[in-house]
Amino acid sequence: MSDIAFIYPSQNDKYGFPENMMPLGICWIAAFLEQAGFVVKILDQQVDKEDIESFLKRENPKIVGIGGTTETRFESFAIAEKVKKTNPSSLVVYGGPHATFTAEDTLTNIPSIDIVVIGEGEQSFLEICRVVFENTFSFHTIKGICYRQNDDIIHNPSQSRLRDLDCLPFPARHLLKVDRYNLKMDFSDFHALSVITSRGCPINCTFCSASSLWGKNYSTRSPANVADEIQDLMTKYPIQGIKFFDSTLTLSKKHITGLCNEFIRRRVDFKWECEVRADTVDESLLELMRDAGCYYIDVGLESPNERTLKNINKKITLRQFEKVLDWANTLGLKTKVFLTWGHPEETLQEGIETWEYAKQLKKKVSKVSGPGIIRIYPGTYVESFARSHGYLPKNFSWSQPYFSQQNIDLGNSPFTPLMLQKGFGYKEIRKFTYALWSEEHRNTILRKKHIIKKFSTIRTSKEFKYHLNSLIDMVIWKLGMNPNLSKKIKSILKL
What we know:
The protein is α/β, with parallel strands linked by helices.
């Protein structure tokens, strides 16, 4: 039996990413509630396939919290419906980035969801629990929530951000089946866990909702608090590394230098990776990071075109980015670069330049991610641009059924709209990417060694399906056959 149960959805096995990510947001809220004396359980369907109805009947919670992303929103809605069918009296609370920016839409269209938590969830969720267990149900007093009252949807004032993140207990990973997560360090077989050391991002890139989600205030945990958590994790679990999942670990030089110096002082022996911005690091800082255990950095460039960089509010230059690569190579740090295309008002020619630049980069970086087509996420400038320019229907609702075969043809999730524009849309991107992908990979990707290497690392059926789907596509492209044939083969194999 539990007071509160959290359920996190799995991605659709056919289209989901094979790596399972631990839901740290839910774990943090769960730990905060446990600290207040509540009994909490978590069912993460990514790794735990227990039947939801059985879980709910056994735990009989008064409150069920549901997380999820834009990609998994329909799974989240299905969970909410199952909760109401199994435990009609349970209060269903939905939260996370997608929920935050679609609160009214969700409550209007999904009757099985009672409350949406907006933004940072710990304090608001704790207050929901208190009024429910005190039987006052006075939701009007709780900041940071949106809820249904009769036929009206009520938006309460925003909740104040937590300034002292050290006041939070460590995320409640003990409520998860930690050994079932398959997170690995890139370029190695080291098992890893994810850690977040800060919240917020003041940059406000057009394709990202982080600034809108957290506000432009940037808050950090103390170096000692972060080091304590990492040492605790290394004691409890068989891990060799940490993936820092901050939006940008290096936004504050004081914060990153404090972390590095604390790791060195304590002689904490672990490898780690993080995302950096090109304008927040220099050679001496990268050297300090390397000495503290960093072996790999992710750098977001998005586009080599200065006009595009300005339009997407990236606030970096190509020169700054290339200097970071030079420093990293000098210091022996591995690098991954993120490139994207299809930004609002970007031209096809600029997209072609991005692809050509990606091919050049492969001589200088360890891995190039992309170019990937910009996805339309709620709460972003891209979303407002798509709506105002007709790239999303006027009546588009995030809560209504959405499935795009075009997205699948372009190698993307069918559940999230893509930024497909006039002159740089489905037709152009499909023709262009298939031609260049074949040029770049078809003579290497199907080599026996490559296939054996890919499939030898598989740990779950989900990973097997993911790689088999990719292999079928590769074979069809290699043989120069109609891409539609891959759909028929997958249908026969029930993939």
